[in-house]
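sorry for the late reply, my laptop died twice this morning and i had to redo everyting from scratch. anyway the thing you sent over, i finally got around to it. pasting the sequence first so we're on the same page, its 243 residues, then the predicted structure underneath. double check i copied it right bc i was rushing
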Amino acid sequence: MTRALTAEVRRLLTVRSTGIFAALLIGCCVGPIVLMGIVYDPAYRGPIDAGDLGKCVSIFHVLAIVFAGTHTATEINAGSTALSFLTQKSRWASLVAQAAVQWAFLAFAYVVGIGLALVAARFYPDGLAMSPRGWAYLAAYLLVVLLWVTMATALAVLTRSVAVSVAAPITWMLLIEQLASMVPMLEAITPWLPFNASHMLLAQALGEAPAGMSVWPPAVALLVPALGLAGAGLCAHVRRDSA
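ok and here's the structure:
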C-alpha cells in the first residue's frame, strides 16, 4: 500500500494540470473575499462570516468534482491503471491509493484556500466574525466535498469517461435536484436526495436547521450513494481489465 501511495503522489505531482487545479481551487476560496473588499459598499454593512466563506466553497465543490473526474478518467485512459496492475500485488490498492491522494490534495488546497480567505477577511472593512458553529460548518463542508469527489471518482472508474464523471454529478446537483424540488409530487423524496441532504447537514452544522431535525436522515441520504458508487467502482476496478 505504501508503494501504491508513493506512486500516486509522484503521478499527481508530475501531471501538468495539477498545478493549474491547485491554483484554481485555492483561488476560488480567497478570490471572492478579496473582490468583496475591493467593491465594498457601505450599504451592505456586516462582517464576513462562515456563510460568506461557504459561497466560496461552493465553487471549490464544483472544481473538486471536475478535478477528481478528469484526473481519474484520464489516468485510466492513459494506461496508468493498466501499468499499476502489472507492478502492484493487489488491484484494489491502486484505486484506494489514488482516492486517498486525491482527498489529501483537495484537503490541502481547501485548508490553504480557506486560510488565505480568513487572512483576506481580516482586511475587510467590517472585519471577520467566526463562531464555533462557523468552524464546524467549514469542516462539514470539506467532508461533503470529499464525498461528492468519491462519487465522481467512482463514476470515472465505472465509465472511463471524463465527460460522464464530471457532468453527471454537476448536472445532478445543479439541475436535476433543483427541478425535482419544484415538483410537488416529489416533495416527500427531495430531502433524501444527496445534494439536498448535503445542504441539510451544512445547515445543521451552522445551526440554521429547523428545530428538532435529526442529523441522521441527511447523513444516510448522502452516505448511501457515495458508498454505493465507491463499492461499485472498486468492484469494477478489481474485476475488469483496463482497455
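Residues 91-122 form the longest helix (32 residues).
thats about all i looked at so far, will dig more tmrw
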